[in-house]
Amino acid sequence: MAVHALPRDERLQCDRRSEALLGETLAAFSGFDSARLDPTEWKFLARRDQFSVHRAVSCVDSHKRRVIASGFLAASLHDVLGGLYVEDDRELLTTQAILSPSGNTAVDAAVLLIAERREPRAAPFRFAGVKWYSWKRNLSGEGQECDLLTYERMGQAVTDGRETDSSHELMYHVILSLNKPEWPLDVARGPGFRRADMAFCFLYLKVCDDLVECFTLLDYDCRTAGSSRRAADTEMADRVLMVTRLPDLARAKCWKPRTCTLKMARTLPTARLNELIFCIWNADND
């Protein structure tokens, strides 16, 4: 993969956008109560396990839409963030293969730029950089190629106004679309290629040793997300619900490859066994 560099002014702009979205998400999270969502303002889209997704009925304009999601993940905070933290191209592709919605096939992925990386003791999950994802949407027997170029930040956040003894263990993951159509520099894209335009902020709060509360705020352009607005809603809900597979991802990363096959086969859906094999293949070739 070619060397990619982000000019300082563009990096600062991305950081400001990240901070703004994080601040907005923290404010929404501090006063959020899913039981009080007004159905005239929020439309239910999907639910998986203990995680629900809603879309705002009113839109900023005819194309921009907002989604919120909330729920719980049966995993430790360390496992959730450890599963998400990636600096390596091959590991990023494996991660996407495991997390991707069932209607999508992960094709390629790359870490194009690392501006900040973790420090094992001081900041074990800190990250800032540019990543690229490519997948194929399996529609009506034909695969539509899509990709997403993102500036991402991970780290620790604090919030006021929410009663919790674990406020110091609130982590965030911001994912912003990056408007650089020429990136990746060495990847050819066909005329039918669709590049997604979206902005995510995920918050992960430790509830106890094996339970994490997750809250998500997402803005997206429905023109780049699907063939229709309804299809865009479905695709975005599926993309948000990828977080429900983080416990599977944590197990895939933690278990030793030659001994985990039977254990994971009992816990993963059948549709995920190919991704499991791919994950084990990657680990065997480290």
UniProtKB/TrEMBL annotation:
InterPro entries: Rab4/Rab5_effector. This is START domain-containing protein. It comes from Phytophthora fragariae.
